[in-house]
Amino acid sequence: MNVGALFLIPGFGLGPDDYAEMVKATRLDVHAVDVWPKTEAGVREVGRPGTPQFDAWFQYTLRRCEKELEKHPDVTTIFAHSAGYLLAKELANKRGSGQGKPVVAFGVTADESATTFLHGRTDSLVKCTAERVFDCGHFGCVSGGAARRCRELQRAIGSTVVTEAYVDRQAEIGRAVREAMAAP
After folding, report:
1. 133: part of which helix (H) or strand (E)?
2. Helix (H, G, I), strand (E, B), or coil: what is residue 60?
3. CA 49 to CA 65: how far, in whole Å?
4. Rounded to 10 degrees, what is the CA torsion of 28, 72, 15, 103?
């Protein structure tokens, strides 16, 4: 069954390449947009949610995501990790290229949306309320190096730091994303 392509929106401080093994396990065409700054200075420039500078960055980044989606009409589902869900949810609810596309999210607290939520059992950042739970933490869908780099960035900016041990579940999560896309 052809389930289409996946659009990847990385979590805070992460980039598309950090999800390489998860993406490989989906066995899908995956299109992605690199949305987050990777340096302390870049993150400080974006600011915290609720500030005018963050709101401006968010709207600019949302437009970038919309333009990227327009280039890929084969995309049927949006995958978001952690803070990337802010963008995914907005894309799925807006008019335009993302409207009506289902979202699969990992590492976020479930809400009332139609999103399929996946979660790490030991996630120290968000409450585990997902339909499908994996034996890992917040960074189970990315590489160990990416998890370390993101923790360093969290520390540098004084943000809440993920505290659980890293457990790699990229392949399992990738397969679960594909299964969620194939579900009616």
Report:
1. strand 132-134
2. helix
3. 18
4. -70
pLDDT tens, position by position, 101-153: 889 999 998 888 888 999 999 999 998 887 799 999 999 999 999 999 999 99
Structure tokens at 135: 């034996």
Q: Write down the pTM of the prediction.
A: 0.92
CATH number at residue 28: 3.40.50
Q: How many distinct structural domains can be found in the chain?
A: 1
Q: How far apart are CA 169 and CA 184, in angstroms?
A: 25
pLDDT of residue 64: 94
The helix (H) or strand (E) run that includes residue 80 is: strand 75-81
Spatial neighbors of 65 by CB under 8 A, at least 6 apart, are 7, 9, 33, 35, 87, 91, 98
Q: Quote the domain boundaries for residue 79.
A: 5-182
* Distance between first and last Cα of the chain: 12
Q: Which of 91, 95, 107, 178 is nearest to 147 (CA)?
A: 107
CA atoms of 7 and 13, how far apart (whole Å): 18
Distance of CA 87 to the CA centre of its chain: 9
Per the CB < 8 A criterion, the answer to whether 167 and 136 are in contact is yes
Is 91 in a helix, a strand, or coil?
Answer: helix
Instruction: Extract the tokens encoding 93.
Output: 């609810």
